[in-house]
């Protein structure tokens, strides 16, 4: 029987921290106003802040999920970059903590949230294709092996 805990609560204090982060991000124009996937659509302030609050809350929720179910943790990045072109390169899991030990996790992982009814995983082709080799299969296999090293399977998530 599967004993995974799937319902994860994000404490209100963490959501408030996400809101403060999103407001600062908007004030500094440190992230694009364009809607993800629809570059011609510019987000209004409320939509921009809501998107970033949801995004950071999802990162915290996923962190709590990994802590509760896998004994793995990571630092949620609340750094605000002064330039939109300087960022974490979509790597939300640059460092993981496993058994109290800090480990580099070199497979770029960009945590995204979806609606409850969604049952899919967004994989941006440019993040998994090795353009030098044009080998998507090799990169996917490497990702799979790295996930297995952390004892995470797709069936567990």
Automatic annotation (TrEMBL):
Record protein name field: Uncharacterized protein
Organism of provenance: Cytobacillus oceanisediminis 2691
